[in-house]
């Protein structure tokens, strides 16, 4: 269990969740059916509340999302949003350090928190009759956090260990971090969410307190509760807890520096003794739901599905099944960002192939897409798949809560989430083709190549051994 | 006194009240229907119509531990190729039908079992079950698919080799289960994956997937009446009995030894382990509570509190009880910067010794019981999770009433029970330590997989 989120993997997972969420299923529900049918209200102090009823079990997922993330940090203070997220578990006047999570657990709940570029969120999954308890605790730490050096400094070491574990011990993660810093040359999305080590080690208690006072307030937060609860039941509890907190008059506007035009293809090759399997990746800037040519966001989701959703998708079929150049290929479009989104493709060369062959084959496939477009049948089939996913998204306690939290902290509205199926349904073949040109037609992408060291150290022939801990999942490459 | 302080006080009182009065949540009764087909195949069903979704999971006995020595990875390769075409449908045709109907079908193999999973909308269920039956009974194993999957498994294996956790697991198996099937790499090696033939896959599907020992779990929008005949059509054509080579039981070896996998990385990955307890042991519930207090309970555990919260030595450390068909373990895993590895291990062993001698406190017992019982309903929030839980209960032979009596079993555990189990189970001197990295201040008894 961790008090944080891994930016990279987490962002990916959420994108999938939200995409999964954002669907209605015209095939299944009448056209008027919405995705989650949430209820919403706003407290007098400005705190927005979203309730998603799901009575499958007598439990709720209670989440508080703050409209602040690592991209809102000042230069030189990278990692501060995430550091504060850890420190939020360190106590208030009435809650001793480490008592928060213990209290949640003692009441049969699970709690955690995570930080991303655009948001920081805290949650407790717990029996519905314990909801008022966690709301009181979460409201308390929204404004009453107490931090002292003896508590704060050991936690900074924990975060340094977290960075070593997630990033420095893992060559692929190090490459990913470098690629983002090269893609976004000026915007803070180029700075890792966890922070650079040389800045993490200088973060102070005062830094954390200043950041907390500036950004943590009910009118900069969103409460999302999903599960066995209705708005009528939740509202009095919300008024008793969060409703008593005074709003802040000084919430800073979320104005980040904007990217200058960038030009030219850029490339990083990282070689590492630990690496045995070469890998290839390319990232483009793309519109998000909230920034850039955002009218193309839905078309890009359809494009993503055509290119890389399943074993019969274009890229897998061409590179893996037919040409046998790649063992696997992935494409991921992330539209959930306050500023620009990204589209990335990664591929692993098949045995006997190399990254140059993979790159050439992908370039050819993308060129074919840009000149020849997509077919009506591909668009229709992708739209059906996407809309069906909405039904699956409803079968989850926390998924819907994530979807609304991400949407509302990245410039979207509740209505936007609910209208997702309509937007997908309205996408045309022409829009998909225009969107493809808009993003994949850019030449200012970054390419990352992960390679074994020139003369890879031979590993002593492995005497049989194995991990009793984890049953191995069948490790298929690709997006199948 | 302003309003804020009032809230604080009220909140505080509330917390105190909960701490004193809360013993356990009302158990959310789980209504499981035992469905038996005309042909005698049994499935457990939790019916729910809130979403038009059906999730099915099933398991055959025997998994990766049965792979022949020269063909390690066979069970996983078979699982990965079973959905690559069946009957008249080649791989692309088969996968195309899954994709266009939004059906998720997959197979996997692990220790002690071979598992299938199916998730479908109710409106596509007939197609979904048809495809599943085809995959189970008429998998094609076309050369194109076999070679493609082999390549994927080989590249995936090589990719894992950049991860220190891969080497930790390799060293762990070799050290604790030397010469035993559990000690071998279940994903195979480059050589063993290369040695697997199409005939091996065909033979595996023909001889290992059988009705005896089959467990089936279903959750979602389907009735028992609909499911019963379906079970025969899905599984009825399989042979009655599987051909399973015997596997011996083994006790974790190398007690007290420290094995190093040297790697030039900034952080040392560590696993500590010794023998544990069988799932069928009457003391299992006391051991579960012990493990929660020791290291299974996240931020409510002693390991996390001492190693992370107080000393800042790690991002995460935890323990777990693991019971397999032929061995059992209690393990600790975590990671720390190289020059703190010795301290982290020393603190872990101190905690181990202290709990072995003194057990846990009354408060820890109560906290473990309220968490383990109170959090149970969190596992019943979606069809896939419910099917998974029903399958696990069957595989552990716990009985169809288990879910409704589990909380009572946990609440019946006394402090004396935990103390007795701690004394029996925990021994710091027997912990085997596996390290990957370049830890300072530690002299290993041996090294493995030198670069």
Notes on the structure:
The complex is a heterodimer of chains A (480) and B (451). Chain A folds into two domains: 39-244, Metalloenzyme, LuxS/M16 peptidase-like (Cytochrome Bc1 Complex, Chain A, domain 1), CATH 3.30.830; 266-452, Cytochrome Bc1 Complex, Chain A, domain 1. Chain A is 41% helix and 16% strand. Chain A has helices at 7-21, 80-87, 99-106, 131-143, 149-168, 171-183, 197-200, 205-215, 231-240, 297-308, 314-322, 355-372, 376-394, 398-409, 414-418, 420-426, 429-440, and strands at residues 39-42, 48-53, 59-66, 110-115, 120-127, 221-227, 266-272, 279-286, 326-334, 341-349, 446-452. Helix content of chain B is 44%, strand content 18%. Chain B is built from 16 helices and twelve strands. In chain B, the strands form two sheets. Chain B has a six-stranded mixed β-sheet, with helices on both faces. Chain B has a six-stranded mixed β-sheet with strand order 9-10-8-11-7-12. At the A-B interface, helix 3, strand 5, helix 4, helix 5 and helix 11 of A face helix 1, helix 2, helix 3, strand 4 and strand 5 of B.
Throw out a few tags for this protein:
heterodimer, A: 480 residues, alpha+beta, Cytochrome Bc1 Complex, Chain A, domain 1, 2 domains, five-stranded mixed β-sheet, disordered N terminus, disordered C terminus, B: 451 residues, six-stranded mixed β-sheet, metalloprotease (chain A), Pept_M16_N (chain A)
In CATH, the homologous superfamily of the largest domain in chain A goes by the name Metalloenzyme, LuxS/M16 peptidase-like
Largest sheet of chain B: 6 strands, mixed
The number of strands of chain A is 11
Q: In percent, how helical is the residue content of chain B?
A: 40-55%
Distance between the termini of chain B: 67 Å
- Backbone shape of chain B: globular
Q: Provide the CATH topology of the largest domain in chain A.
A: Cytochrome Bc1 Complex, Chain A, domain 1
Number of helices of chain B: 16
Residue-averaged pLDDT of chain A, rounded?
Answer: 89
InterPro entries (chain A): Metalloenz_LuxS/M16, Pept_M16_N, Pept_M16_Zn_BS, Peptidase_M16, Peptidase_M16_C
Family (chain A): Belongs to the peptidase M16 family.
Keywords (chain A): Hydrolase, Metal-binding, Metalloprotease, Protease, Zinc
Pfam family, one (chain A): Peptidase_M16
């Amino acid at each position: 269990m961790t008090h944080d989120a891994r930016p990279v993997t987490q962002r990916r997972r959420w994108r999938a969740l939200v995409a999964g969420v954002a669907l209605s299923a015209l095939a299944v529900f009448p056209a008027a059916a919405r995705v989650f049918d949430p209820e919403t209200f706003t407290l007098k102090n400005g705190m927005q509340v979203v309730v998603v009823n799901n009575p499958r079990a007598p439990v709720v997922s209670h989440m508080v999302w703050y409209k602040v993330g690592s991209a809102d940090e000042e230069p030189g203070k990278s990692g501060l949003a995430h550091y504060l997220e850890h420190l939020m578990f360190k106590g208030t006047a009435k809650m001793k350090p480490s008592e928060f999570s213990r209290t949640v657990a003692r009441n049969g709940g699970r709690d955690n928190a995570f930080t991303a570029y655009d948001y920081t969120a805290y949650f407790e999954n717990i029996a519905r009759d314990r909801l008022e308890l966690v709301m009181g605790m979460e409201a308390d730490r929204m404004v009453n956090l107490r931090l002292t050096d003896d508590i704060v400094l050991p936690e900074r070491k924990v975060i340094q260990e977290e960075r070593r574990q997630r990033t420095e011990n893992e060559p692929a993660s190090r490459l990913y971090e470098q690629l983002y810093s090269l893609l976004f040359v000026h915007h803070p999305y180029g700075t890792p969410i966890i922070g650079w080590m040389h800045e993490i080690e200088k973060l102070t208690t005062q830094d954390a307190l200043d950041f907390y006072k500036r950004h943590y307030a009910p009118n900069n937060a969103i409460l999302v509760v999903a599960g066995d609860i209705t708005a009528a039941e939740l509202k009095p509890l919300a008024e008793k807890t969060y409703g008593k907190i005074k709003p802040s008059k000084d919430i800073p506007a979320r104005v980040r520096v904007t990217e200058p035009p960038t030009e030219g293809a850029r490339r990083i090759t990282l070689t590492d003794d630990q690496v045995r399997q070469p890998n290839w990746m390319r990232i483009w800037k793309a519109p998000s739901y909230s920034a850039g040519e955002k009218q193309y966001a839905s078309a890009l989701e359809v494009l993503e599905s055509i290119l890389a959703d399943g074993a019969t998708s274009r890229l897998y079929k061409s590179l893996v099944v037919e040409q046998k150049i790649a063992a696997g290929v992935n494409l991921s479009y992330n539209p959930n960002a306050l500023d620009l989104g990204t589209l990335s493709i990664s591929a692993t060369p098949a045995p006997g192939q190399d990254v140059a062959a993979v790159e050439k084959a992908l370039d050819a496939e993308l060129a074919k897409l840009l000149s020849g477009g997509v077919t009506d049948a591909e668009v229709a089939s992708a739209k059906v798949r996407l809309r069906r996913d909405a039904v699956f998204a409803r079968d989850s306690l926390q998924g819907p809560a994530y979807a609304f939290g991400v949407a509302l902290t990245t410039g979207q509205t509740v209505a936007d989430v609910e209208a997702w199926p309509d937007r997908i349904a309205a996408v045309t073949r022409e829009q998909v083709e225009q969107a493809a040109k808009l993003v994949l037609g850019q030449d200012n992408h970054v390419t990352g190549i992960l390679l074994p060291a020139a003369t890879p150290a031979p590993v002593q022939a492995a005497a049989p051994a194995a991990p009793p801990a984890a049953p191995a999942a069948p490790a298929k490459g690709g997006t199948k | 006194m302003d309003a804020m302080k009032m809230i604080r006080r009220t909140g505080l009182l509330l917390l105190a009240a909960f701490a004193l009065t809360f013993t356990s949540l009302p158990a959310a009764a789980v209504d499981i229907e035992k469905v038996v087909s005309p042909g005698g195949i049994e499935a457990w069903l939790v019916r729910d119509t809130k979403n038009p979704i059906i999730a099915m999971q099933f398991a055959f006995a025997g998994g990766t531990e049965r792979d022949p020595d020269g063909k390690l990875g066979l069970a996983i390769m078979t699982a990965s190729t079973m959905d690559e075409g069946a009957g008249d449908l080649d791989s692309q045709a088969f996968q195309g039908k899954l994709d266009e109907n939004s059906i998720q079908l997959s197979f996997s193999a692990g220790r002690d079992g071979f598992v299938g999973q199916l998730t479908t909308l109710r409106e596509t269920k007939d197609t979904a079950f048809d495809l599943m039956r085809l995959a189970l009974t008429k998998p094609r194993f076309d050369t194109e698919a076999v070679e493609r999957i082999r390549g994927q498994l080989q590249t995936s294996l090589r990719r894992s080799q950049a991860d220190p956790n891969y080497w930790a697991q390799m060293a762990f198996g070799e050290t604790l289960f030397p010469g035993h099937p559990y000690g071998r790499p279940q994903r195979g090696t480059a050589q063993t994956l290369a040695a697997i033939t199409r005939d091996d896959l065909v033979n595996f599907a023909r001889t290992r997937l059988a009705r005896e020992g089959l467990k089936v779990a279903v959750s979602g929008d389907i009735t028992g009446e609909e499911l019963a005949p379906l079970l025969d059509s899905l599984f009825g054509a399989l042979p009655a009995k599987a051909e399973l080579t015997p596997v011996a039981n083994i006790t974790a070896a190398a007690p007290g030894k420290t094995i190093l996998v040297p790697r030039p990385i900034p952080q040392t990955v560590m696993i500590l382990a010794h023998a544990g307890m069988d799932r069928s042991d009457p003391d299992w519930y006391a051991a579960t509570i012990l493990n929660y207090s020791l290291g299974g309970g996240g931020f409510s555990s002693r390991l996390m509190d001492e190693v992370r919260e107080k000393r800042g030595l790690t991002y995460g450390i935890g323990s777990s009880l693991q019971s397999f068909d032929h061995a059992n373990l209690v393990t600790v895993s975590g990671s720390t910067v190289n020059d703190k590895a010795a301290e982290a291990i020393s603190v872990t062993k101190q905690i181990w010794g202290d709990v072995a001698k003194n057990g846990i406190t009354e408060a820890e017992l109560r906290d473990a019981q309220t968490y383990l019982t109170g959090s149970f309903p969190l596992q019943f929030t979606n069809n896939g999770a419910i099917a998974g839980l029903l399958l696990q209960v069957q595989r552990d032979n716990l009985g169809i009433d288990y879910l409704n009596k589990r909380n009572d079993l946990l609440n019946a555990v006394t402090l004396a029970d935990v103390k007795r189990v701690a004394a029996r189970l925990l021994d710091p001197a027997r912990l085997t330590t596996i390290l990957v990295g370049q830890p300072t201040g530690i002299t290993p008894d041996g090294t493995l997989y030198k670069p």
